[in-house]
Amino acid sequence: MGNPNYEKYLNDPEDLIEEMIDGFVKSYENKIKRVSERCVAKKEAPIKGKVGVVSGGGSGHLPAFMGYIGQGALDAVAVGDIFSSPSVDHIYETIKAADGGEGVLCCIGNFSGDIMNFEMAAEMAEEDGIDVDTVIINDDVASAPKEKMENRRGVAGEVIIWKIAGAMAERGYSLAKMKEISDKALFNTRSMGVAHKPCIMPTNGEPSFELAEGEMEIGVGHHGEPGIRKETMKTNNEVTADLVNIVLKDLPYKEGDEVVVLINGLGATSPLEMYISYRKVYNMLEEKGIDIVKNYIGELFTSQEMAGYSITLTKVDDQLKELFADKCDAVSFKQMKEDIN
């Protein structure tokens, strides 16, 4: 049985992934189905004549990844252990579950285990005659310098790419076109996060990283990877301004740009705090002549109960604005068709 000395409402930690998936699917059984032990898909998947969109990764990030299954988002997801990549076989099952005959686009974070296993699974699927392409999401500015963007982690920018790719698939775009436009959106997407308390690993009760009382880490990763510096806690305005300024310089974003803003809570940050942060982001961008055309605010890609948040900016053109405006009816990510000027 589980360790009774830490505060998690679990049964046996050995069964937590199985029980979590089972409970999640039962909660949304009108929308999703369990294809296999670690593969969850749309109820109607595969959809003939549409490019399949899949993702996957370690557990512990709900609503990512399963919460983004649905119309205008993901067709299927491979589920790994806590902060661990799904296996090659589970990813292979997920690609097959999404294949409607027009190929499958895998949209994954830039983590070595995910990349290796998705590559191997894609090769297996291609041997079956399934066309597969991959977008490797690397939006985390803190994790590598700009000249080494290929080494950057994927964080909340994954939500941006899932939305864009899902919209394109619903419109009937080809796999090649979806890859091209997703890569454009990815290049225009940059994120930066902060945290002042770690998550607790549910398998052993250990913190994912350690900070002193009253200390925060700028640029910390979703799994507790090191950021760029540790500081004493500051006001929301000060922290948000720091994150935004780092992001703005990196593309760089400039006067006249139009952006989508995503503020993501990491699990233990209240909506109150996130809206105060958005207020600062809004005012800063307004002063710089950068127009916000859409925002997403909430716990969109968590890390258990980590106390912190991240800010993501995506520079958009008319093509991307149309895709952001499209309807999305995923399990945990919904919007009606919108007009975005």
TrEMBL record:
Q: Which residues form the DhaK domain?
A: 12-333
What species does this protein belong to?
Halanaerobium congolense
Q: What is this protein called?
A: Dihydroxyacetone kinase DhaK subunit
Q: Which PROSITE patterns match?
A: DHAK (PS51481)
One record GO biological process: glycerol catabolic process
> Which InterPro entries would you find in this protein's record?
DhaK_dom, Dihydroxyacetone_Kinase
Q: Name one Pfam family in it.
A: Dak1
Give this protein's Gene Ontology molecular function annotations: glycerone kinase activity
Superkingdom as given in the UniProt entry: Bacteria
Q: Keywords, A to Z?
A: Kinase, Transferase
This entry carries the following GO cellular component terms, namely: cytosol
